[in-house]
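Just curious. Protein, please.
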Amino acid sequence: MDENSARMAEQLRKNPAMLKSLMQSRDGQTLMRLLTQDDGGAGLQKAVQSAAKGDAAAMTRMVSQIMQSPEGAALVERINKAVQK
């Protein structure tokens, strides 16, 4: 996980209200749709479980795939900026 993503994840972990707000936002909903569209969320669930055990590789791969498109990269950038506020 790159430094910005790690910082964002840590901020969200420490601030459940911020995480809830993000997940209720349009960008958060779009991110969830992109993360779950291929397999109904099974891959995301496994990635979250692995990340909780300290292995963020699967989560990093999922976010990297999203960032392959200009729209996905813009989405992740907007979320990073929102979390930094």
The two ends are 21 Å apart (CA to CA).
